[in-house]
Amino acid sequence: MVAVIIVVFSLGQAVGDGMINVNWPWKNQSVNGDLPDQLDYTSVNEVYQALKANYDGKLTETQLTDGLKHGLAASTNDPYTVFFTAKEAKTFNNELNNSFSGVGAQLGQDSDGNLEIIAPIAGLPADKAGLKAQDIITSINGTSTSGMSVDEAVNKIRGAKGTKVTLEVVRNHNQPLTFTITRDNIVLPSITTKTLNGNIGYMQISTFADDTNDLAQKAADKFLADHDKGIIIDLRNNPGGLLDSAVHVSSLWLPAGQTVLTEKRGNTVVQTYAAMGGNELNGIPTVVLINGGSASASEITTGALHDNKAAYVIGEKSYGKGVVQQLINFKDGSQLKVTVASWYRPNGQNINHKGITPDKIVKISDADAKEGTDTQLQAAEDYLANH
After folding, report:
1. Active-site residues: which are they?
2. Which whole number is the average pLDDT over 100-114?
3. Do residues 169 and 179 touch, judged by C-beta distance below 8 A?
4. Least confident of 57-71, 127-141, 185-199
5. Of 196, 295, 304, 367, which one's alpha carbon is 20 to 30 angstroms from that of 69?
6. What share of the chain is helix, strand, coil (3-state, %, to 5)?
7. Per-residue pLDDT averaged across 329-357, rounded?
8. What's residue 3's pLDDT?
9. CATH value at residue 345
10. Could you give the angle at the alpha carbon of 287 between the alpha carbons of 96 and 362, nearest 5°?
């Protein structure tokens, strides 16, 4: 079960996709029961015959059938319902496991349909070049992004290690900037840790991936062995990832049975995820750091710890991805990722397009960023020094 990773520039998926479950624990009750059992492809075949007879270019049967499948998914007008060919599915799964080649940033769409950067990943080419969350991409290698889909943009941005891509962006709606970025192979551990001020355990989770459960447990063991008096969980620019990892991380603080999230179709609850126990970090003052690049599984963890009074939240409002996708596998290796439900915080709120507002809002100005001053981290340390 996965809460989908937001699109990584070179990978071809949409940022902040919410949750994906490969093996769905309940039977879908479709709201589209009035559709026919089989589509009438008469008009589709007319278009096919016209293409076959008139198109001045080479077409293949696979190309055409894949185009139909992509089109069926796109007809939902839901950016998180996507058909993947076998090749695209492989790329998608590599992305979920933090293994890819690209510039190391996540791509999404704002409410106006503009292509925007959700989160450049710290230390990787996009971040080093100076891209920031919420930068609007206006052109890719000189081609305007007006009317361009996420998939089209990703196909233009991704490429082999060592090659370059030039992006023109608009920052803060009025500042045009140009970045030329060298692509690279990127393999990331999902968690890094360190000790701050001698007694604060710091855990940065970049994504919720296959290695997150083990790394989070090791971090918790170290915090306890070091007798840390406070803990900071840094989820800034974390695009999401595996749902079971979000539940596992939350369970390091929450007693067994406490609600992590609830899923609904319409007004019907279809699944509730509860903490698994362990809760060895329960009672240690904890701060969660979030910003506009925190999405999906990072929002699940933030909401679970906040609503169960296990953590204080500092930073900026999160991305706001509160819908659920199911991943359906086909025998040829292709996949359909389809939106099937919405998820809700323990307090009953759905955060889709709303995000999570921190207990204390702290922003990092351009001047602070230029000087390397992390005002949000400083605020977290100050909070823990007084609790």
Report:
1. 296, 307, 321
2. 82
3. yes
4. 185-199
5. 295
6. 25, 30, 45
7. 94
8. 38
9. 3.90.226.10
10. 95
pLDDT at 22 over 50: no
Tokens representing 44 are: 């589709």
Residue 66 identity (one-letter amino acid): D
Residue 68 lies in a domain: no
In this predicted structure, the answer to whether residue 11 has a pLDDT above a threshold of 50 is no
| Secondary structure in 3-state letters for 194-239 | EEECCCEEEEEECCECCCHHHHHHHHHHHHHHCCCCEEEEECCCCC
At 247 the pLDDT is: 95
Domain count, the chain: 1
Any domain includes 301: yes
DSSP state of 281: T
Alpha helices in the chain (DSSP H): 42-54, 61-74, 86-96, 125-129, 150-157, 212-225, 243-251, 297-307, 366-371, 375-385
- Examine residue 345 and state whether it is found in any structural domain, yes or no: yes
Spatial contact of 216 and 234, defined as CB atoms under 8 Å apart: no
The pLDDT mean for the chain works out to 88
Task: Judge whether 175 lies within some domain.
Answer: no
What is the token pair recorded at 363? Answer: 């922003």
Distance in angstroms (rounded) separating the CA atoms of residues 304 and 344: 10
Q: Which domain range does residue 273 map to?
A: 188-322+340-385
